[in-house]
Amino acid sequence: MSTCYVIDDEEHAIDTLVNYINKLPGLNLVGTSLNPLNAIDEITNTIQVDIVFLDVDMPEISGLDVADIISPHTAVIFTTAYPNYAVQAFEKNGSDFLLKPISFERFTKSVTKVQNLIRSKKVAETHHEDEQFFINPGIKGRIIQLSYSEIIYIEGLKNYVMLYTVDGKHITYLSMREIEKLLPTSRFTRIHKSYIVSIEKIKSIDGNNVILSPSIELPIGISFKDSFIQLINSRTLRSGRKV
């Protein structure tokens, strides 16, 4: 069962999605909101949500900006009447993109796709304690075994990614979106459209840069800054005393 939430500034658009959610087995609606700011608070602080159906074009705050904040907590399916938002939506790590008016058939396909992605990610996280995994370096007949603990960071190179480890670097034919969805979120986080870093390898944060070693300093992308800082704040030791 996947929990879901609908954010849209139009009541009729929410009603359509709620109707579809209620018709499709395996979905459990846990909330809706016309106000994206209220929704952000609920999703990040109150309830566990697997899938958020998020309108892009809203007056108070763009759905693209909302996605920056909530994407560490949930999968996002963007909904909009404007197809020109598609590229931006996927740059924001959207799991899918639904163009209004949304048919039930298209809705079903989208939900199935995202549920499969969530399932694959949960399997990866469940088994990440095994530590080892394999990659295909693109050389015929060759497979390389790596461990999560040896990865320092990952760099996106068009249709490939480069994995930088304590012993060297390895290339494999995966996109940044693909490898990000397969990595355990408890150990890795995306800080830039081109970089994913190992959380345990972060030495410090200096302004808009992440320091991984004296010789490795990576920029924090504007689109990823809010979610990254939120992650760091959640792991920062703080005094409960009043200053």
What does this structure look like?
This protein is α/β, with parallel strands linked by helices and 243 residues long. The chain is 33% helix and 31% strand. The strands form four sheets. A five-stranded parallel sheet has the order 2-1-3-4-5, with helices on both faces. Helix 2 packs parallel to helix 3 and helix 3 (63-70) runs parallel beside helix 7 (222-234). The radius of gyration is 19 Å and the shape is globular. The mean pLDDT is 89.
N-to-C span = 45 Å
Secondary-structure element order, N to C: EHEHEHEHEHEEEEEHEEEEEH
Largest sheet: 5 strands, parallel
Helical content (DSSP H or I, runs of 4+) = 25-40%
Q: How many H/I helices?
A: 7
- Apparent shape: globular
Write down the overall mean pLDDT.
89
Which consecutive residue ranges, at least 5 long each, have pLDDT under 50?
none
Radius of gyration: 19 Å
List keywords for this structure.
single chain; 243 residues; alpha/beta; five-stranded parallel beta sheet; five-stranded antiparallel beta sheet; 31% strand; globular
Set out the fold topology.
Elements: E1 2-7, H1 11-23, E2 27-33, H2 36-45, E3 51-55, H3 63-70, E4 75-80, H4 86-91, E5 96-99, H5 104-126, E6 132-135, E7 144-147, E8 151-157, E9 160-165, E10 168-172, H6 176-182, E11 188-192, E12 195-198, E13 204-206, E14 209-213, E15 216-219, H7 222-234
Parallel strand pairs: 1-2, 1-3, 3-4, 4-5
Antiparallel strand pairs: 6-7, 8-9, 8-12, 9-10, 11-12, 13-14, 14-15
Helix pairs in contact: 2-3, 3-7
